[in-house]
Amino acid sequence: MAALATGDGASLLDAVQPLLRACEYAAAGLAGRNRDVLTLRLAHTQPLPEALLAALDAALGLDDPLAVMCYRDSPRSISKHVRITAGRVVAARLTGETAAFNWLRDAVVDGEDAAPLRAWMLAPVTRPPTGGAGRGRIVCNCLNVAEPDIVAAIAAGAGLAALQTRLQCGTECGSCVPELKRLLAGERAAVSVRGAPFGTGVVRGVRADACQTLPEPFANKALAERRRRGTAIAECVMSATADSADAATPPGHRFESSCLE
Q: What count of other Cβ atoms lies within 10 Å of the Cβ of residue 213?
């Protein structure tokens, strides 16, 4: 189950904490820059009791049937509640199926207009209905900074100090600083390997010239995954110029291959 609500963060946490103890797994956090947004993730081996769901709805402001959009599929133990106030989503609870939670959370944090999203809020869709890919994983919950924004800044040459100045991430509670350092280390490792000449060098014990060439979409996906983990991937690039020793290669032609260990 996943839920969120806007309001005073401390008061919301105080209201839901007694209820979370009844779940086998529960995680609560605060997001948002201009206002507090409580986010909850709950898991249980059995469907949560209706009394617990009703108490949670009351704590999140989802207990007024005239003000809340509802969906229920009892045989599958799925129930969803979304509340909209003044054209903005202010609270939501998704139980049994939570595919839309991430983009709903982004919409709440960003204060997006709910009108174009209304028809999709209770649907099992993992992407915003506008066709976008969403903002991605939020690294800095305090100031609502997403991973793609951080990775783009790092690729442009930003270090930790520049990230904190430019994006403000890691300047509040500091809990995301280790993750920022991990992303920085991953980008530096990838950049250092990209500079190695084709056909020479050893990456983690495997010669670059022995790597398997992958089709571009798979290579890009593999590179992104390795960067995410903070480990190196060999990206071997050979440029043939007019001075190339191979006369069969047209001048200025460029060959690229991504090499995995």
A: 12
In the three-class reduction of DSSP (H, G, I as helix; E, B as strand; rest coil), residue 198 is classed as coil
Q: Measure the CA–CA gap between 84 and 79, rounded to whole angstroms.
A: 17
Domain limits for position 216: 195-261
pTM of the model: 0.54
In this structure, the number of other CB atoms found within 10 A of the CB of residue 254 comes to 10
Q: What angle do CA 64, 65, 67 make, to 5 degrees?
A: 70
What is the DSSP secondary-structure string of 23-74? Answer: SSEEEEEEE-SSS-EEEEEEE-SSPPPHHHHHHHHHHHT---TTTEEEEEEG
Domains identified in the chain, total number: 3
Indicate whether 83 belongs to any domain. yes
pLDDT digits (tens, 9 = 90+) for 105-155: 888 888 888 888 888 889 988 876 655 445 677 888 787 788 888 998 898
110 occurs within a structural domain: yes
d(CA 123, CA 119) in angstroms, rounded, equals 8
